[in-house]
Amino acid sequence: MLDKNKKILIVGLGLMGGSYALALKEKGYRVGAVTRSPETIRYALEQGMIDEGTTAPEAAFVGAYDLVVFALYPHLLLEWLEQYQGMLRPGALLTDVTGVKSSIVYRVQQMLRGDVEFIGAHPMAGRELSGVRSADAGIFRGANYIVTPTVANTEAAITACEDLGRALGVARISRLSPEKHDEMIGFLSQLTHCIAVSLMTCRDTEHLSAYTGDSFRDLTRIARINGDMWSELFLLNKEELQRQIGLFITQLDALKTAIENDDTDTLKEMMRLSTERRAFFDK
Amino acid sequence: MLDKNKKILIVGLGLMGGSYALALKEKGYRVGAVTRSPETIRYALEQGMIDEGTTAPEAAFVGAYDLVVFALYPHLLLEWLEQYQGMLRPGALLTDVTGVKSSIVYRVQQMLRGDVEFIGAHPMAGRELSGVRSADAGIFRGANYIVTPTVANTEAAITACEDLGRALGVARISRLSPEKHDEMIGFLSQLTHCIAVSLMTCRDTEHLSAYTGDSFRDLTRIARINGDMWSELFLLNKEELQRQIGLFITQLDALKTAIENDDTDTLKEMMRLSTERRAFFDK
Are both B186 and B221 inside the same structural domain? Predict the structure, then answer.
């Protein structure tokens, strides 16, 4: 387990950063925060989500932390490190929550001081809400958590990052290369968001709620989406995401052709396979 | 409200027929069943889901019912009427639960005796399970229910069919022409099932459960699918379904192109619209 004496700093106290803070405070860790809004700090202190917080990073504050979790938009993570990495304590371990990896992890590791270490992580958890007031330690219950080590990482850092996942209370921890992560997440998360958005916008849908069943609701839950964040994530994984969209369209088109040709055998075989595979995803 | 003295016959005691029986018995109606398996009848009697049941339709039995609900696969509904409509009581009202309408309703109304009336209905409710043992009156809670009258229908029959929906406990009742129904359901229900099946089968997915978040689970809940039933429903609505699949693919392809061109504005606008529209579908 992550040493209880380790002080943990959350940079970016939104839905995800706030949920980290809540989960870690529950476990008894000392948690600090750097975030942009004074109102967020006030709220988080009031709620007991953090022990201390600031909107203006200073060396005396930042340098006190052993583990720093970045819960920022990708471009802000890079900007923050550019500007403030000099304040980090020597030997500090840095990690993140970013939904893309290849385009971030290597750049961070390259720009970073030699006496601190960055290890990428991605908790597969979230809500269709944003901001610290939506933070909820419960989002990690049953969740998957992916650590994405590179050759630049030490085994100690990888293990500490996995310990962090355990402290959050996730259900399963995996290691993937940044590239493999981006392929998996391009398919499992980014493609699904592209599908939901396309389904909701491909025709007039405002008046359809009187006729819908739960299928459409299920497929569009994630159509309520933070455009700033997801457009950034999509573009940072563009080749992989385009490939996954392509695979999906090809298959849907094959199904459409089977319908056109009254090809019941092909339809049934696809549904048999689909039913068999879905069983692997029961929680 | 539907007259409590009306006797209701369910033909086909599977998930949907069984759920009708449970909901109607709860409301105090006398409910009978015709279904293929003696074991199903035994179980339904034991559970108090029905008052009487038979596997072999006879005039003395069938002719005792005022309202007959067909919860059969479409082709079996047509076969049943072909064979047994002579047994129906004069003045009986017939309805169904079938997920496609244009290809069924007109054929049924054409083949039917002049002294009985068929009015199509579609409860937008279900589960990823089948059979009488999965029946659950709760599936109608919060559900939409669509009645699809044609020029052949009397206002009295339409109202009685809506009353049946109220007796089931659905949340909202609408009237649509069979054609409009098939367009809406082609989009809201059939397209979503096509998407779920394609997503689950477009690449190897068996090993992905360690990396997934809830998005992929949500989009594939309905990938567990009854191939016999859905392939029949897809083919009975093939033109409309192909059109809806086409609309969706065109939009997903536009999103893919926006990603390819780093076109953040288009991406954000789609997500803004998608978010705005999703709000209409909150239960």
Answer: yes
For residue A197, tell me if it sits in a domain.
yes
Task: Measure CB to CB from residue A194 to each of B217, B238, B255 and give the nearest one.
Answer: B255
Chain-chain contact of B184 with A208 (C-beta, under 8 angstroms)? yes
Residues of chain A with pLDDT under 50: none
Q: For chain B, what percent of residues have pLDDT higher than 70? A: 99
Q: Which residues of B236-272 are buried (b: 16+ CB within 10 A; e: fewer)?
A: bbbebbbebbebbbebbebbbebbeeebbeebbebbe
Cβ contacts of A74 on chain B, cutoff 8 Å = none
Instruction: Test A193 with B215 for CB contact under 8 angstroms.
Output: yes
Q: Do A119 and A189 belong to one domain?
A: no
B172 and B104 in a common domain = yes
ipTM over 0.90: yes
Alpha carbon of B128: minimum distance to chain A alpha carbons (Å): 10
Instruction: Write the burial class of residue B110 (CB in 10 Å: 0-12 exposed, 13-18 middle, 19+ buried).
Output: exposed
Write out pLDDT tens, residues B52-77: 999 999 999 999 999 999 999 999 99
Element (H, E) at A74: helix A74-84
Expressed as residue numbers, the domain containing B157 is: 7-176
Size of interface A-B (CB pairs under 8 A): 292
Q: How distant is the Cα of B257 from the closest Cα of chain A, in angstroms? A: 9
Question: How close, in Å, is residue B18 to chain A by CA atoms?
Answer: 19
Cβ neighbors of B156 (< 8 A, separation 6 or more) are none
- Give the residue from B220, B202, B244 showing the smallest Cα distance to A254: B202
Select the residue of A198, A228, A262 nearest B252 (Cβ to Cβ).
Answer: A198
B223, A274: Cβ pair inside 8 Å? yes
Q: In the structure, what pLDDT confidence band is assigned to residue B1 with cuts at 50, 70 and 90?
A: low
Provide the whole-model pTM. Answer: 0.93
Q: Which residues, in sequence order, are CB contacts of A228 under 8 Å at separation 6+?
A: A73, B268
